[in-house]
Amino acid sequence: MPSPYNVALERNSVIERVREALELKDFVILDTETTGLERNDEIIQIGIIDPDGNTLLDTLIQTTRKSIPSASTAIHGITKKDLKDAPRWVHIRKKVESICEGKRVFIYNADFDTRLINQTCDNHSVPYLKLNTVCVMKLWSCIVGEWNDSKGNWKWQRLPDGDHSAIGDCIATLKVLHRIGSTELMPVPEPEPTESPEVENLRSTLQITGILIAIFIILSALSQCAKPTP
Question: What is the pLDDT of residues 150-194, one digit of tens each?
């Protein structure tokens, strides 16, 4: 886990970054619902809201897949039948591009949504969207502060109060941003002293010397044991 000094710096940086965004209101929040998690899945619902929670886009999207897995429908409630009269992604893509142009796009788990959007572009033979994304999940995980030793990073946190609808999860993400913005800054402790390169080299030399002496002593003892007794 990072030192208390580095934890405080990172946490305070997240808080100040979010506070600035909430003050400038130069962002939108985007969320999607999908046919699944795999490399052939795509988005079937997309929602975008502004910093005040107003809906800018809320639509279902036709899928190229023959069916929607029941496991996915069990999460978001969307069936293939629901998409019968939905627009195709080639038309919705232009609206998304227009809404997000020149703005930061806050997404909870941005890596996932961006991947699924790109896969949808591939499946519909249209260019990728160029989005300036910010992952709110990573920001929130830093604030929660649970360390994942195996990943060497903050443990990813589930979206609080999400309802697995695109707009509902956008609203939940906005609430997370306000929770981050209202978090108090941490006192920053003094940084831990660091050794100069010369001291580090001396320490390494002494360690190596100690190992060599230990090896010499062991070899000498073995040599004495190997001598024949008179």
Answer: 999 999 999 999 999 999 999 999 999 999 999 999 999 888 766
The four Cα atoms 186, 192, 197, 198 give a dihedral, to 10 degrees, of 160
CATH code of the domain covering residue 15: 3.30.420.10
Strands of 143-207 (E only): list them: 147-148, 153-154
Distance CA 145, CA 11 (A): 9
Q: What is the reported pLDDT for 191?
A: 81
Sole residue written with tokens 């249209």: 126
Domain that holds residue 145: 4-181
Q: Report how far residue 127's alpha carbon sits from residue 90's, in angstroms, rounded to the nearest whole number.
A: 9
Distance CA 131, CA 181 (A): 23
Paired tokens of 83: 């998409």
**What is d(CA 139, CA 189) in angstroms, rounded to the nearest whole number?**
21
Asked if residue 186 belongs to a domain, the reply is: no
Q: How far is 141 from 144, CA to CA, in rounded Å?
A: 5
pLDDT at 88 over 70: yes
Provide the pLDDT confidence category of residue 228 given band limits of 50, 70 and 90: low
The pTM for the full model equals 0.82
Q: What angle do CA 89, 92, 95 make, to 5 degrees?
A: 150
Secondary structure element (H or E) that encloses residue 56, with its range: strand 55-60
